[in-house]
Amino acid sequence: MSAGSATSASGALLAPGARIRAEVDEEAVRLLAERLYGISVQELTELPGYDDRNYRLTEDPNVKNPLILRHSPHGYVLKIMNSMDSKNLAVVEAQNELMNFLSRRSVTCPVPVRNVFGQLHSLETLGGQQHAVRLLEYVPGELLKDVPHSDALFYQLGEFVANLDNKLQNFTHSGLAGREHIWMLSQVPELEKFKYVIEDPDNLDLVEEVIEEFKYAVVPQLGELERGVIHGDINEQNVLVDRKPQPSNSEYRIAGIIDFGDVQESYYVFELAIAMTYLMLLTGQPRSAGVLLAGYTVTRRLPDHEYRLLKTLVSARLVQSLVLGAYTLKQDPANTYVTCSARAGGWQLLRRLRKSPPQPDGDDTDWRAVADEYLTRS
């Protein structure tokens, strides 16, 4: 659930206690939009974010702006990247190229807009720190978290994730080589440095158990996993949905994806595990991840040795989200975005995955069995 927490250009991971979010007020944002993009802002709204700041803005239609050749009918998002990610501009370039790459391949996602200098980003000094600033076209749509749940939608989400990764197989960028940040699943062992924020001893035991299991069950297997570029943060706040056309106007379908702040070279099974984790947090039901898996495996092969890692990977993402959420809240108590996992029953879900006794009507964490049953039924 991040929008940052990455490395510096030197490759150093986020250190406990570091403040990296831009300190900026709305007037400064208006001035940035005007100076860099020629936009006279009519409306300005700050959007939820983790370490980055994101502002939705619309242009004053009465002010002509020759700087932007193709005006976005739905407005724009001005993104002010955290100071740590901003030290690695090759990653920013990779994100921009990736959005354009996917947009050309019929994936609905934001695309970057060139500034007054003809560039897709600029480096600006704000509150004494340097931050990368860019403008994206705003993509309309409802978020997955805001629409009624259905198995059909979860199945589609699995198909969407698989199709996305099939396309990403053909994308490479030198800016992503060697990129590390604390929100990558491969960085779970680094959570040792942040676990001090977990005050409940039972929760801390769970965290330590999952970190240890990741170290002995996943790390030795990394060389055997299929690797490539992934989105890295497919969650209910980053997936766009829209209504199906008539006559089924009450049904929703997966429409697109936003927030490429965590794009990385990693493992495709990590992408799947992350999507499954956040879907379970949304629904509170482990079974929903099995329906997602059904859609995924119909579109993309999942080898047995990768499937066997899923429960550990999902547990690890939960721990990552809970620990880093608690840490960020300690740093920035006003940031309500970071409490999503804990508020959505993250600890209860983690206990259910780790400790739950067998159920008389079947194991809803046996995701392959759930997927098979769903495919047979539908």
Summarize the structure.
With 378 residues, the protein is of the alpha+beta class. Helices cover 38% and strands 15% of the residues.
Please describe the structure with a list of short key phrases separated by commas or semicolons:
EC 2.7.1.81; Hydroxylysine kinase; disordered N terminus; Phosphorylase Kinase, domain 1; Aminoglycoside_PTrfase; 11 helices; single chain; 11 strands; Pseudomonas-type_ThrB; 2 domains; 378 residues; transferase
Principal-axes shape call: globular
Category by helix and strand content: alpha+beta
Overall domain count = 2
CATH architecture level-2 label of the largest domain: Alpha-Beta Complex
Helix content: 25-40%
Computed over alpha carbons, the radius of gyration is 21 Å
Number of strands: 11
The fraction of residues assigned to DSSP E strands is 5-15%
Q: Which segments are poorly predicted (pLDDT under 50) over 5 or more consecutive residues? A: 1-11
Overall pLDDT confidence: 89
CATH topology heading of the largest domain = Aminoglycoside 3'-phosphotransferase, Chain: A, domain 2
Terminal CA distance: 32 Å
Name given to the CATH homologous superfamily of the largest domain:
Aminoglycoside phosphotransferase (APH), C-terminal lobe
Supply the number of helical segments: 11
For the sheet with most strands, the description reads: 6 strands, antiparallel
For this structure, what is the CATH class of the largest domain?
Alpha Beta
Order of helices and strands: HEEEHEEEEHHEEEEHHHHHHH
